[in-house]
């Protein structure tokens, strides 16, 4: 699945959870166009917005699904841990 497809899918779940783009924007303290851009895959969320969304929506969406950069960061950390474990063996 393409990263922006994940963003769009997560944004739709978030919007459904809050009951619309305007309600989602209010809950996340952002503008409605920001929510619309997420829903239409124009860009991913910032790390801060993605983490806020996961928290405010009680885990309905994961931050890594809204922010592809977070997903890459966690992937890099997981790979580093694997290398450290392999080297320690």
What does this structure look like?
The protein is an all-alpha fold. The protein has one domain: lambda repressor-like DNA-binding domains (434 Repressor (Amino-terminal Domain), Orthogonal Bundle). The protein has six helices and no strands. This is YdaS family helix-turn-helix protein. InterPro entries: Lambda_DNA-bd_dom_sf, YdaS_toxin-like. It comes from Microbulbifer echini.
Main attributes?
mainly alpha, 434 Repressor (Amino-terminal Domain), Lambda_DNA-bd_dom_sf, globular, 89 residues, YdaS_toxin-like, YdaS family helix-turn-helix protein
Please provide a brief summary of the model:
It holds the Pfam family YdaS_toxin. The protein has 6 helices and no strands. Helices cover 75% and strands 0% of the residues.
List the helices and strands and how they pair.
Elements: H1 3-18, H2 21-28, H3 32-39, H4 47-56, H5 63-66, H6 68-88
Helix pairs in contact: 1-2, 2-3
Elements, N to C (H/E): HHHHHH
Rg: 15 Å
Count of helix runs: 6
Strand content: under 5%
* Superfamily (CATH H level) name: lambda repressor-like DNA-binding domains
What would the CATH topology be? 434 Repressor (Amino-terminal Domain)
CATH class (first level) name = Mainly Alpha
Number of strands: 0
Query: How does CATH name the architecture?
Result: Orthogonal Bundle
Give the CA-CA distance, first to last residue.
34 Å
Mean of the pLDDT scores?
85
- Spans of at least 5 consecutive residues whose pLDDT stays below 50 are none
Shape: globular
């Amino acid at each position: 699945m393409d990263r922006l497809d994940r963003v769009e899918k997560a944004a739709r779940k978030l919007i459904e959870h809050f009951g619309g783009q305007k309600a989602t924007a209010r809950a996340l303290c952002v503008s409605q166009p920001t929510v619309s851009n997420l829903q239409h895959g124009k860009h991913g969320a910032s790390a801060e917005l993605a983490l806020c969304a996961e928290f405010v929506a009680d885990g309905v969406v994961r931050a890594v699904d809204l922010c592809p950069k977070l997903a890459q960061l966690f992937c890099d950390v997981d790979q580093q841990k694997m290398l450290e474990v392999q080297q320690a063996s």
